[in-house]
Each structure stands twice: as structure tokens, then as C-alpha cells.
Write a structure and sequence with these properties.
The chain is α/β, with parallel strands linked by helices. It folds into 2 domains: 16-37 and 262-353, Aspartate Aminotransferase, domain 1 (Alpha-Beta Complex), CATH 3.90.1150; 40-259, Aspartate Aminotransferase, domain 2, CATH 3.40.640. It has 10 helices and 13 strands. It has helices at residues 40-49, 63-73, 85-97, 113-121, 163-172, 228-238, 248-259, 261-284, 306-314, 339-353; strands at residues 27-28, 80-83, 104-107, 125-128, 148-151, 178-181, 204-209, 222-226, 288-289, 296-300, 318-319, 321-322, 332-335. The strands form 4 sheets. A 5-stranded mixed β-sheet has the order 2-8-7-6-5, with helices on both faces. The protein is globular, with a radius of gyration of 21 Å. It starts with 26 loop residues before the first strand and ends with a helix. The relative contact order is 0.17.
């Protein structure tokens, strides 16, 4: 604590990001990064963007990237907002759309940044418990609220909410914003995204990122899709905060990522296939694995403590994510790696639980 801080800083409970240790020969399966590199077209675009134009500010409205996203999702540029990672986009969402007289709603087991944003912007919230099987029942959100947000697939559980369930909630909740945080949607079944509902529901906002399926976590690129009136509100917040959230190199990479569809689809399928193989191997070791539509799995072993397993893996230079929160303190969240990394994990777990 410092005497120079504003008073509210002392009350903040900041988000704790996933560990990024500098350890040689580490198998890193803790932060849901893509195990494969970005598209070669993305790498070429970034190299081309490193030129004399770096002395100039980037385009504040990211017009080319917005146009690319609009064409990709069959929307208009006025329905697209971009930011410095989906975390910044979500920060603007909380600040600009969720500071309402009534409490907002989100799951009790979900992205742990949500309550942090609420603390930062003095937003009242209620956590809605997941079901006993850790599924998210949107019928539980049919109550008075100042806004609703949930990840789909949920994190850290990986469970998916169906598109009809989302539409039913939108039909029943027309007086506040519903935000669907789709950081992992590209690893779900085709047609699972709520983007297809945007033109029917002006209170729907969908947030996505290039960090996961497009292997660009290191560049921090995110975006939101929704009605023009929602996007205009986010633009007003952005332009009161930072008019240039994305630089030349980021924008070049982002556009190239969406134009190289073949590479994207191939890597997406490869991760999904690896996930299913990994699930089968973990189940054969006796792990209970929640159904996952993401690039990670959420597992527990009925005979072995979660924290003990996480530490034993670390001693073998394999790191995964263990949560100490109630209800999930026996679970491990394991990012899907390459087939070689996944096999290394399985071999290590087999050795640990066989002792």
C-alpha cells in the first residue's frame, strides 16, 4: 500500500494470469495457448509491416481489419469493435454496458476476470451456480438483471451451451445486454457461435479473440460483434481511453489470419482431434473428464488429490492449471498440446498414479 494510491486501489483484488515460467524443457499446458504456430501468411504479413510506417500512428478505427471481420461474419463494419486482446474488449464492455442500477449475472465457476472488472468499475453482481454436473443452465438467468455474461464454451469447465438455449434466453431477456464470451468457440461444433443471432437481437454482444484458435496470444487482438448501437457505445469508451489499441503489425497479422482460412481450419481440426484422443487416454487412466468443446479438458481423479497431481507433474517439468476454488479444487485444467506433449502428459500421469 502506498500513500500515493487512490483510495479505491486498496480495495481491488486483481486478476492472476496464468503462469509463464522461464524453464528449459518445459511442457506448458496451463494457459490454453495454441500448440501450433501462426499461419505462414500471418508471419509474412508481420514482416512486411515492419517498415518505415512504424513511425506513424496506426489507423485508429482499424478499418481494414473491421472490414475483414465484417465480411467473414457476414456483418457490417458498424457491427464490429476491435481492441487490445479480448480482455481489453471485455473491460470496455463492463465499463460501458454493465454499470447499471441492477446487478449483472454470470456463472459462479467461470472466467475469474469477471469479478475483477466488477471491482474495478464498482459493478454489483450475482453469481449463478452451475448445475451439479457443471453445465450452465440459462433458465437460471431469467431474473431481473443489469446484464448477463457467460463464456461459451465455459472456462474452466469447457462445457458448451447450445445455440437454441442462448436464443431462448435472448427472447426472454430483451431489456439488458447479453454478452457471450466466445474465446474458445472455434474448438466447438460448427454452428455453435451466437454470431448468427446478432441481426435478430440488438442486445446481443459476442466477444472473440485471436489468442486461441488463431495462435496469436502474443499479439493481443480481440473483437466484439453486435448491433451498431452497442458497438457505438464501446467506441465511445475506447476513444475516451486509447484511440490506438492495435498497432500496424497487429493489424497486419489480424487481417492475414482471417484470409488464410485453410491453415486456420486445419489447425482447428488438429486440436479438436488431439483433444478427443487425450480424453480417451485420460479416461483409461481413471480420470473423470467433463465434456469439452474447448482446447482444454477439465479433469479429476477420484483417488488422487488435484493439488498433489499438479505438483507431481511440475516436478516432471509439466505444468497444468489447478484451481483452489470451492467445488473445483480437485480438478485440473489441461490445455491440449501437440500429440507428443499430450502423450508426455499421459505417460507422466500414468507413472504418478501407479506409485
Amino acid at each position: 500500500m502506498s500513500k500515493y494510491w487512490s483510495e479505491f486501489v486498496t480495495r481491488l483484488d486483481p486478476y492472476t494470469p496464468g503462469e509463464q515460467p522461464a524453464i528449459n524443457n518445459l511442457t506448458k499446458l496451463n494457459t490454453n495457448e495454441n500448440p501450433y504456430p501462426p499461419s505462414p501468411a500471418v508471419m509474412d504479413a508481420m514482416r512486411d509491416a515492419v517498415n518505415d510506417d512504424l513511425r506513424l500512428y496506426p489507423p485508429p478505427n482499424a478499418d481494414q481489419f473491421k472490414q475483414t471481420l465484417a465480411e467473414y461474419f457476414q456483418l457490417t463494419p458498424a457491427q464490429v469493435f476491435v481492441g487490445n486482446g479480448s480482455d481489453e474488449v471485455l473491460a470496455h464492455v463492463f465499463n460501458g454496458l454493465f454499470r447499471q442500477p441492477q446487478s449483472i449475472l454470470f456463472p459462479d465457476i467461470s472466467y475469474s476476470f469477471y469479478p475483477v472488472y466488477c471491482g474495478l468499475y464498482s459493478i454489483e453482481y450475482n453469481k449463478v451456480p452451475l448445475a451439479d454436473d457443471f453445465s450452465l443452465d440459462l433458465n437460471d438467468y431469467r431474473q431481473a438483471n443489469g446484464g448477463i455474461i457467460f463464456p461459451n464454451p465455459n472456462a474452466p469447465t469447457g462445457r458448451l451451451v447450445s445455440l437454441p438455449a442462448i436464443e431462448a434466453l435472448l427472447q426472454a431477456n430483451r431489456n439488458s445486454v447479453v454478452v457471450v464470451d466466445e474465446a474458445y468457440i472455434d474448438f466447438a461444433e460448427e454452428g455453435a457461435s451466437a454470431v448468427s443471432l446478432i441481426d435478430q437481437y440488438d442486445n446481443l454482444l459476442v466477444v472473440q479473440t485471436l489468442s486461441k484458435s488463431r495462435a496469436l496470444a502474443g499479439l493481443r487482438i480481440g473483437y466484439a460483434l453486435g448491433s451498431a448501437q452497442l458497438i457505438e457505445g464501446l467506441e465511445r469508451i475506447k476513444n475516451s481511453f486509447n484511440s490506438y489499441p492495435l498497432g500496424h503489425v497487429q493489424l497486419a497479422a489480424a487481417v492475414a489470419s482471417f484470409t488464410d482460412r485453410d491453415y486456420f481450419n486445419a489447425m482447428r481440426v488438429q486440436v479438436i482431434d488431439s483433444r478427443e484422443v487425450l480424453v480417451g487416454k485420460l479416461e483409461r487412466l481413471g480420470f473423470a473428464v467433463l465434456p469439452s468443446a474447448a482446447n482444454f479438458v477439465f479433469v479429476r481423479h477420484p483417488e488422487h488429490d488435484g493439488a498433489v497431481l499438479a505438483q507431481a507433474l511440475r516436478e516432471k517439468n509439466i505444468i497444468i492449471r489447478h484451481f483452489k476454488s470451492p467445488r473445483i479444487d480437485q480438478f485440473l485444467r489441461i490445455s491440449v498440446g501437440t500429440p507428443q506433449q499430450n502423450q508426455q502428459l499421459v505417460d507422466a500421469l500414468d507413472e504418478i498414479i501407479s506409485v
